[in-house]
Design a protein that fits this description.
alpha/beta, Rossmann fold, 2 domains, EC 2.7.7.7, nucleotidyltransferase, DNA-directed DNA polymerase activity
Length: about 325
């Protein structure tokens, strides 16, 4: 919970007021701690004096919607406390099941919190179903919508909620958060993770956990040299792996994007334009990857080609 004092001030000021708004959008790039904030804020919201409170994950008055495990095997991994893959979206059936639970009163106090992580992963029909609850919220029910890309959320949802924007953290705060979450990192991995973080502790941690140091070196070489013989793109597929899972794909896209951002600082005007174009396309890829079922090999080839096209070489000048 480093670096979000403004968000806490807004939340606690509203809690202390006479009439707290029922819908909150926690908006900002992925990896800033919005979901962690939502859980802590929900715990404060539902607490009652002299009433023992169970942990957030077991609290009857804190309901969380997130994508379900991708399969029965992944559900078993979840139940065993292991990492697991999820479906790409939150379904309308999940929203309707939530709404059935909202017909009862809160269990331990006067308030109930609903966390949706992330609301920009709701199916279109799920968004329409959720709108009914946002328009006529049950008494004592408050919604916290974690949103990574505010532009993907329907205006009808945004208009019914207060928006709290989470800003990227300073380099010092990212370093502190990374050291707290992963104190055993070697110095080279730590330095590379901080270089690609872009103000996001989650991005730095994902980079470190996915061991993307070799991939980042290939990203930098692609931007510097181009890749006329495809050798670097072949090397990239080798260091990423034949079938990287979705988390590794997303971490790789983010590392590539931040490699482009850093290259912008030292680019001339001609190269800068190509880097900006590559950055725009990488941002689009990052938004599409959680939604579409990309072939991992083709995705890495696309990333490599975008970086090579921005290099100040013959290939980049095409």
């Amino acid at each position: 919970m480093i670096g979000h004092d403004e968000a806490w001030r807004a939340w606690r000021s509203a809690m202390a007021g006479p009439r707290m708004h029922h819908g909150w959008i926690l908006a900002g790039r992925e990896g800033l701690g919005k979901a962690t904030f939502a859980r802590a804020a929900a715990a404060e919201l539902v607490s009652e004096a002299d009433v023992p409170q169970p942990p957030v994950d077991m609290h009857p008055d804190i309901l969380t919607l997130s994508p379900l495990p991708a399969s029965e095997d992944e559900a078993k991994k979840r139940d065993e406390g292991k990492p697991y893959l999820t479906k790409r979206n939150i379904s309308v059936d999940q929203v309707r099941e939530l709404q059935r639970r909202l017909t009862t009163r809160p269990t331990l106090g006067r308030r109930r919190a609903v966390i949706i992580d992330a609301a920009d992963q709701l199916e279109k029909s799920a968004v329409n179903a959720l709108l009914k609850s946002l328009e006529e919220p049950p008494e004592g029910t408050f919604f916290l919508l974690v949103v990574h890309a505010l532009g993907r959320l329907l205006p009808t949802v945004r208009s019914r909620c207060l928006v709290v924007r989470f800003q990227t953290l300073s380099d010092a705060d990212v370093a502190r958060a990374l050291d707290e979450a992963a104190p055993g990192l070697d110095s080279d991995t730590r330095r590379a993770a901080l270089a690609v973080a872009g103000g996001s502790p989650g991005a730095a941690l994902a980079f470190a956990e996915q061991d993307l140091g070799k991939a980042q070196a290939v990203f930098a070489a692609l931007l510097d040299q181009g890749d006329p013989d495809l050798s670097l793109r072949g090397a990239l597929s080798g260091v990423i792996g034949a079938r990287p899972d979705r988390e590794r794909q997303l971490a790789a896209i983010e590392a590539a994007r931040m490699t482009v951002v850093h290259a912008l600082d030292r680019a001339d005007d001609r190269t800068r334009l190509k880097l900006v174009e590559a950055h725009v396309k990488l941002v689009r890829l990052a938004g599409e990857a959680p939604i579409y079922n990309f072939d991992p090999g083709m995705l890495m080839l696309e990333i490599g080609s975008l970086l090579a096209s921005a290099a100040p070489t013959r290939e980049g000048a095409r």
